[in-house]
């Protein structure tokens, strides 16, 4: 039997890791959150460079996530010649499962509707990925009990119903933003069943399908097979060809420039956070000088203003998601209080999942 390439097999083991950790966390009633899983997976990649050849990654700092929308970035490729790298901006969510009937479970990704000011998190991620010429994806961490898993299996390998160990590959899956956008328009669509019945939701190892069947980004949420793009990763031990999804290609110099921009972004965000912290400290000091009754009235007005602002932001985000679903062109302006740190240029952006660029 032909042996699969190193990186493809290693990504498959990450799926097993996520599945097993969530399985035993539920068994022993332990909390094992999304951030813990992400940290352990990324650390495993960095500590095993021979098992994960041709990968560069950058974890997004917690303070920068509202501006970027991702949990981490993955870059696959090599530095041969001018270098050939393809990037993915990943936002991860963990499944909250519950039993329904006959020993089967279902669950939902309740954090999918997370708001960042007046935008859904996926909209922030889409803007950032478009500017940096990356492919935006959502990753799901799962463990769920089902009688049959075949309806959730869109990989070209054997179905979990025929090979039981393959069900663990559903522990770490990826999906394009179009599926996330559609899920936000209906609470039912945020379930494990709804997300994984979609053909675009695959185990994470399928990003590097050795059969030349990488699917991302898919047009209008449809799988395109085969998509022989032919980006070869030469760092595999036996030199086998591995094909990435149809993502923009970056040279090594462009990738270094990207990381420099990230560094500058962090510095500017740090200055902004410090300015906000000082303004907040000044406000609190002024409120301490007020009479108790006046302080309570000010706090009540502030709380009411926040509730109204959140309701307006949610309505605006839903309106944008519905417009994108209809295929309309949406203008995404950055918040006015953040214009000084507007790293993403203001422009008209049509939501799509196709970020093709010529090599």
Which tags fit this structure?
359 residues, alpha+beta, six-stranded mixed beta sheet, two-stranded antiparallel sheet, 8 helices, 12 strands, 38% helix, disordered C terminus
Quick summary of this structure?
By secondary structure, the protein is of the alpha+beta class. The chain is built from 8 helices and 12 strands.
The description of the largest β-sheet is: 6 strands, mixed
Helix content: 25-40%
Order of helices and strands: HHEHEEEEEEHEEHHEHHEE
* CA-CA gap between termini: 34 Å
Number of helices: 8
3D structure, described in words:
The chain is α+β, with helices and mostly antiparallel strands. The chain contains eight helices and twelve strands. Strands 1-2-3-8-9-10 form a six-stranded mixed beta sheet. A hairpin with a 2-residue loop joins strand 6 and strand 7. The protein starts with 5 loop residues before the first helix and ends in a 10-residue tail after the last strand.
Note the topology.
Elements: H1 6-27, H2 34-47, E1 55-59, H3 65-68, E2 72-78, E3 84-94, E4 96-101, E5 104-108, E6 115-116, E7 119-120, H4 121-132, E8 135-141, E9 172-176, H5 177-184, H6 192-196, E10 202-203, H7 252-288, H8 292-325, E11 330-331, E12 348-349
Parallel strand pairs: 3-8
Antiparallel strand pairs: 1-2, 2-3, 4-5, 6-7, 8-9, 9-10, 11-12
């Amino acid at each position: 039997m032909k042996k699969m390439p190193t990186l493809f097999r290693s990504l498959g083991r990450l799926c097993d890791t996520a599945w097993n950790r969530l399985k035993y966390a539920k068994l022993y009633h332990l909390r094992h959150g999304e951030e813990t899983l992400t940290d352990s997976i990324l650390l495993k990649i960095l500590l095993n460079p021979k098992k994960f050849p041709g990968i560069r990654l950058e974890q997004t700092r917690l303070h920068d996530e509202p501006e970027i929308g991702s949990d981490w970035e993955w870059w696959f490729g090599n530095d041969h010649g001018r270098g050939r790298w393809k990037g993915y901006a990943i936002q991860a969510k963990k499944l909250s499962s519950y039993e329904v009937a006959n020993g089967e479970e279902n669950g939902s990704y309740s954090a999918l509707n997370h708001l960042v000011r007046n935008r859904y998190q996926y909209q922030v991620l889409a803007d950032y990925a478009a500017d940096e010429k990356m492919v935006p994806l959502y990753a799901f961490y799962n463990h769920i009990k089902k009688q049959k898993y075949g309806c959730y299996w869109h990989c070209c390998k054997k179905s979990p119903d025929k090979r039981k160990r393959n069900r663990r590959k559903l522990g770490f899956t990826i999906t394009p933003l179009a599926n996330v956008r559609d899920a936000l328009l209906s609470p039912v669509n945020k379930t494990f069943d709804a997300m994984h019945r979609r053909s675009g939701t695959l185990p994470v190892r399928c990003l590097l399908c050795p059969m030349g069947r990488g699917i991302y980004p898919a047009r209008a949420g449809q799988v395109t097979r085969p998509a022989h793009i032919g980006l070869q990763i030469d760092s595999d031990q036996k030199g086998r060809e591995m094909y990435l999804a149809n993502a923009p290609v970056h040279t090594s110099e462009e990738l270094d420039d990207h990381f420099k921009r990230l560094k500058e972004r962090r510095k500017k965000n740090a200055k902004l956070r410090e300015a906000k912290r000082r303004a907040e400290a000044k406000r609190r000091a002024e409120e301490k000088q007020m009479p108790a009754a006046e302080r309570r009235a000010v706090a009540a007005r502030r709380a009411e203003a926040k509730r109204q602002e959140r309701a307006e932001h949610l309505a605006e985000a839903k309106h944008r998601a519905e417009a994108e679903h209809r295929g309309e062109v949406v203008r995404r302006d950055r918040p006015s209080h953040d214009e000084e740190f507007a790293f993403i240029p203001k422009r008209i952006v049509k939501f799509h999942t196709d970020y093709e660029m010529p090599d």
